[in-house]
Write a structure and sequence with these properties.
With about 100 residues, this protein is an alpha+beta fold. It has one helix at about 1-25; strands spanning about 40, 45-50, 55-60, 60-65, 70-85, 90-100. About 25% of the residues lie in helices and about 50% in strands.
Length: about 100
């Protein structure tokens, strides 16, 4: 059982290494490969976070989204998750502050 888990970890690491090398050789931005979070603010009403790893806190005044190396905290009023896919999450409401942790 443990050998199988180690094998899966090694395969995942190899995939990351290969995609990193290919991205470097072809000059492909890291955002395109899904490694780096991208935060897009549209006025004071909408925030789109790409390459997320899930929601860790959800209140009408605070939404915290996990990313590869930390989290993104959106603070405001009447916040809600308008749309969420495996790669993107859109938060709508009155945005007061965005923090990167």
């Amino acid at each position: 059982m443990h050998r199988r888990i180690d094998c899966f970890r090694q395969v995942r690491k190899m995939k990351k290494d290969i995609s990193g090398m290919v991205g470097d050789k072809l000059s492909i931005p890291a955002e395109t490969l899904g490694e780096v979070p991208v935060v897009l603010l549209r006025g004071k009403r909408s925030v789109n976070i790409e390459n997320h790893r899930g929601i860790t806190e959800y209140k009408d005044t605070t939404v915290t989204v996990a990313v590869k190396r930390g989290s993104v905290r959106v603070t405001g009023n009447a916040l809600c998750i308008a749309r969420m896919t495996r790669k993107n999450v859109e938060i709508r409401g009155t945005v007061r502050m965005i923090e990167l942790e």
